[in-house]
Amino acid sequence: MVAAARPRRRVLVGLGSATLLLAGVIGLLVMRSVPWIDQEWMTEVLAVRGPAGTSVASVFNALGGGVLGVVVVPVVGTLALWRWRGRWAAVFFLVASAASALVVQGLKAAFGRVRPEDILVAVDSGSFPSGHTANAATITVVLGIVAQRWWVWLTGVLYTVAMALSRTYLGAHWLTDTLGGLLVGVGVAVVVWAVFAHRLEPPGGAGATA
Hints:
Number of strands: 0
Largest sheet: none
Order of helices and strands: HHHHHHHH
Radius of gyration: 18 Å
Oligomer: single chain
Strand content: under 5%
Helix content: over 70%
């Protein structure tokens, strides 16, 4: 089993690393100036802003950050996965979430990209990549891998897209920041998966109640 897992682990690490590298390349390209796609997108966002949209986007802002996003969601998610799919699924979720957050903060510090001017929520320094989007993408990939259900993937993708749109709607990020966050979230989750893949059982497998 170990011998069979090694090629798979190398592939996962390669795919995850390539995804993270792509995020880094995008960060390098956008750190010195705002590309036209970001400018055009922000112009469209400002044109459609309104109280209803801001309220909805603010809910996503709370889900992906602050005490709720940084503490409550990871803790609840870890405990739920431990009960539902066993300790290794829970550890996978917790490690991937923490690693994603660390990579995001490292890239923010490295690139130091300036955020848009019309921000409606409190934010930290560094615009690239979007931590909210990275967190959503990480959760999506982890739950999709653990559950192995199409509806989990679909729900996660919709949540991640909605989170990305909400970040630009609130003026907290440029569009390319959310793309970078998406790549970081997916890349980190896949790399961490490589570490735990041999310990994760499919739903109903021997490890489901471990």
